[in-house]
Amino acid sequence: MKGVEVTVEQVSRAYGDFKALDNVSVQIKKGEFFSLLGPSGCGKTTLLRIIAGFDYPDNGKVEFDGKDILPLAPDKRQSNTVFQTYALFPHLTVYENIAFPLRLKHVDKEEIDKKVKEYVHLVQLDDHITKKPSMLSGGQKQRVAIARALINEPRVLLLDEPLSALDAKLRQNLLVELDELHDKVGITFIYVTHDQSEALSVSDRIAVMNKGKVLQIGTPYEIYEAPATRFVAQFIGESNTFPCTVLSCEPYENEFMIKVDVPMLGGTVSVTDYDALEVGSKLDFTVRPEKVRITSTPPRSTNKELNTYKGIVDEPVYSGFQSKFYVRLDNEQKSIVKVFKQHTAFLDDGPEIDWRDTVYVSWTATDGYLVKDTDR
Description:
Elements: E1 6-15, E2 18-28, E3 33-37, H1 44-52, E4 59-64, E5 67-68, E6 79-82, H2 94-104, H3 109-122, H4 138-150, E7 156-160, H5 168-185, E8 188-193, H6 196-202, E9 205-210, E10 213-218, H7 220-225, H8 230-235, E11 240-252, E12 255-262, E13 267-273, E14 282-287, E15 293-295, E16 307-318, E17 322-329, E18 336-342, E19 358-363, E20 369-371
Parallel strand pairs: 3-8, 3-9, 6-7, 7-8
Antiparallel strand pairs: 1-2, 1-4, 4-5, 9-10, 11-12, 11-14, 12-13, 14-20, 15-19, 16-17, 16-19, 17-18
Helix pairs in contact: 2-3, 2-4, 3-4
């Protein structure tokens, strides 16, 4: 493995009264594709800049394979950074832009030629090698920037929202290419993004950040299916989330069956959890829209822990491959539940369920999840 293990330990950084990073600790494995994910201002770019050497923490440690890198200048850290803005030299060709770092090091001309052509081929720009940046698309420019960063053979590649300036379809295509590139070069990638779909698509693991703190670190599956906090549940994908209070907790197979009072749903909801929870605990109940069933008649089920609610379709949103329904429940609170319904069969006359239809929404106890509300 060509990458390094990156250790960030209790790093804090403040700018005046604003605390950009608050005691952040992250362990990134050698050769891992690791994403820092969060909204604007959460501290992810500040952390990347500290790892790169463009900024310094007020306290804490940053190590590559156990070696303290904070005293080292950016060009001595065995890391390179790819920025959102490409930062290419407009008067130089693709070949010359990629060769530039090696010329700074006074590498032999034949070696430069060999390596430039190798990395141009790696990023699939062989037919554009003599072009200048003005003749390239946004995606091609970003590939030049990535090749220029990789030609120095860093052990860590830092990517600061590298695809955010591209249109959605191009961004998705380049994301796949970036993942393939990571597999080929085998070094550690640290990827900063505010786009949860990007992070879920390519990451080995993700650190979700907000307000200068790391809220959860895990695989894409863990982050999506088992969010640790209300913020993570709502930031990653879409979710129905409601405050609740634990009423009871009983052993159930290899888990616990929890009964919670959810006022916005009009009463008691059943949900399973791996951990025993104290009666009276204040938490949030969450269920993903794609796990909620929607039917025109009451669902038939032998599952006694099926949570079922009657309501009216407040707003249907057709998106081709699926429909999103906003269902207003028939209870005192008139709460809204979001439902995603996949269109797995041909719809001759459009979706079966439409605006103002009376419907039933349901989910099993294993479909929901209980999370902490860190802001409560």
